[in-house]
């Protein structure tokens, strides 16, 4: 496993009974303090020899001394690693330990102790070593606290067949205030954001993470398996890029870098992952997780490291002499600019090296943990495919009318995804080809489910496959075009018919993916939860996609 992350900003990495604790060595000598474990426990960033464990504990003072234990059994009769760690106010009372010295491919149990309390018990698996023949990953993204209950997280915790890890593709929290996106729904459900305003400062981001981590369903998912996490935009601000975000106003909210760094600091405090390496910018987040020689899961950062500002058809459209939109020139002169970047040159080089190393060591699959959809996805002309009565009703809505009319241009439907950066996508495809990767991509962001077969637009040759997960709670958007449920079927059929890359689309419902990996094939099970407006962990698989290394792609619904 390649890890470009460090353990602590605070000096000595105290090696304690086989674990490196993210606290000073004084914690090893101090007596335990009384404490309350207020936000559960978590594990993440697994390696073949360990993982990071996390908790939050509050007590009487600014520093709480805790004991941590890792065992082979849930009763903790066979403790294999233990030590002490501090939960300090300077890290928002969170504590992390990089546990090492464990056996590859094994499940372990962990917990924390104070002088008078014991935390919940969590479990996590180390990455497997050589000889592994299969792996299972749960994939989630987009969990807005106010839109509904986190039943997808509970369903992952309750899966009969456990997963090796949970891959979270971003939008773990949302930055909006109670008068922003989801405000009306959150008031109806009694899940309004804290703090009530849009979050900007370090204290704001910490309070928002604290609110999300009080949720029992999210706590249950963290307790069930190790998380592998990447952020998307809402951990900082909507549609963020390396130079800012459309909704960030420096005149009233201060410098973008200050807000970005506050958001990232809170992210590293609250998630079970190693801190950035010394001298490495905190927003540079890319890592490799090797599941023996079966799978290299490569986490990339497509927001803050090297992404240029997303193009905008409303802002940058080119018009002909008669004032009509010239979509061909817009694509050629605006979208296809080679300087448009998703990852930046340094990360592009790092990714190609990671792919090459994985292939050369004989690894079967190279899989990207990536935030936004890679596949080409153009808007169908909904004005022509919608039933007449449905179109008439939708056109009576001012917002819907403008959007429906814009689909006549046939432009990519989401320019904040890889579709807004076609030159960068070609560079990604070239890297996959040069390295001879068996490429698979995991994507989130859209709040919809996708099964995509990726093709190089220069010759339509096969490049890889993409599995896109729906959201935990965040809405997909077609319900705002029309409340008529027929809108979903119309959209799904039109999207598949319009786009050769798109083989499966499900633009309704919430849920998650479970991806099974063997040497012969990838099997992606698409799961939806019954309801997000009431606590209900019922879940069902509604589709399965199976693909092999030759690019075979079989969709089975139901």
Major pleated sheet: 7 strands, mixed
- Average pLDDT confidence is 93
Report the β-strand fraction as a percent range. 25-35%
| Count of individual beta strands | 25
Helix content: 10-25%
Number of helices: 15
Query: Strand order across the biggest sheet?
Result: 13-12-11-22-23-24-25
Report how far the terminal alpha carbons are from each other: 37 Å
Radius of gyration: 23 Å
Low-pLDDT residue intervals, each spanning 5 or more residues: 1-27
How would you classify the helix and strand content by structural class? alpha+beta
Shape: globular
Characterize this entry briefly.
This protein has helices at 151-157, 183-189, 202-212, 216-224, 250-253, 256-270, 313-316, 327-335, 345-360, 382-385, 388-395, 398-406, 422-435, 478-481, 486-498; strands at residues 5-6, 15-16, 19-21, 36-47, 50-58, 63-71, 79-88, 94-99, 107-113, 122-125, 134-140, 165-168, 227-229, 275-276, 287-291, 295-299, 365-369, 439-443, 449-455, 462-468, 502-506, 511-518, 521-529, 539-548, 553-557. It has 558 residues and is α+β, with helices and mostly antiparallel strands. A seven-stranded mixed beta sheet has the order 13-12-11-22-23-24-25, covered by helices on one side.
């Amino acid at each position: 496993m390649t890890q470009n992350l460090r353990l602590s900003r605070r000096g000595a990495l105290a090696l304690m009974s086989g674990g490196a604790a993210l606290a000073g060595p004084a914690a090893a000598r101090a007596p335990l303090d009384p404490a309350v474990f207020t936000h559960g426990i978590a594990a993440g960033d697994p390696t073949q020899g360990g993982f990071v464990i996390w908790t939050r504990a509050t007590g009487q003072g600014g520093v709480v001394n805790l004991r941590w234990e890792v065992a082979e059994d849930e009763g903790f009769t066979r403790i294999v690693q233990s030590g002490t760690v501090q939960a300090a106010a300077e890290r928002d009372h969170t504590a992390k330990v990089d546990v090492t010295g464990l056996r590859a491919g094994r499940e372990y149990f962990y917990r924390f102790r104070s002088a008078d309390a014991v935390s919940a018990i969590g479990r996590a698996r180390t990455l497997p070593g050589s000889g592994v023949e299969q792996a299972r990953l749960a994939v989630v993204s987009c969990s807005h606290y106010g839109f509904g209950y986190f039943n997808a997280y509970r369903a992952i915790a309750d899966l009969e067949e456990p997963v090796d890890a949970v891959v979270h593709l971003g939008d773990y929290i949302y930055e909006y205030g109670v008068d922003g996106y989801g405000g009306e729904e959150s008031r109806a459900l009694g899940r309004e954001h804290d703090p009530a305003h849009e979050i900007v400062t370090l204290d704001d981001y910490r309070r928002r993470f604290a609110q999300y981590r009080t949720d029992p369903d999210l706590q249950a998912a963290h307790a069930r398996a190790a998380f592998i996490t990447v952020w998307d935009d809402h951990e900082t601000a909507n549609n963020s890029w390396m130079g800012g975000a459309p909704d960030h106003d420096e005149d009233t909210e201060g410098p973008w870098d200050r807000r970005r760094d506050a958001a990232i600091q809170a992210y590293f405090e609250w998630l079970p992952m190693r801190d950035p390496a010394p001298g490495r910018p905190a927003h540079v987040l890319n890592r490799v997780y090797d599941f023996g020689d079966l799978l290299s899961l490569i986490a990339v950062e497509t927001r803050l490291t090297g992404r240029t500002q997303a193009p905008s058809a409303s802002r940058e459209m080119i018009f002909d002499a008669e004032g009509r939109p010239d979509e061909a020139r817009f694509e050629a002169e605006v979208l296809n600019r080679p300087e448009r970047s998703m990852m930046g040159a340094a990360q592009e080089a790092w990714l190609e090296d990671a792919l090459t190393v994985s292939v050369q060591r004989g690894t079967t699959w190279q899989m990207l943990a990536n935030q936004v959809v890679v596949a080409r996805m153009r808007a169908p002309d909904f004005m022509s495919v919608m039933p007449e009565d449905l179109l008439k009703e939708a056109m009576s809505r001012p917002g819907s009318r403008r959007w429906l009319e814009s689909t006549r241009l046939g432009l990519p439907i989401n320019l904040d995804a890889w579709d807004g950066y076609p030159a960068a996508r070609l560079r990604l495809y070239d890297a996959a080809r040069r390295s001879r990767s068996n490429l698979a991509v995991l994507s989130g962001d859209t709040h919809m489910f996708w099964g995509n077969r990726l093709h190089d637009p220069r010759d339509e040759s096969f490049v890889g496959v993409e599995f896109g997960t729906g959201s935990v709670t965040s809405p997909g958007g077609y319900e705002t075009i029309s409340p008529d449920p027929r809108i979903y079927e119309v959209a799904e059929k039109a999207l598949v018919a319009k786009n050769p890359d798109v083989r499966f689309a499900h633009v309704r419902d919430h849920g998650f993916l479970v991806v099974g990996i063997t040497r012969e094939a990838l099997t992606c099970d698409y799961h939806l939860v019954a309801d997000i407006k009431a606590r209900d962990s019922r879940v069902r698989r509604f589709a399965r996609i199976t693909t092999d290394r030759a690019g075979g792609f079989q969709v089975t619904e139901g």
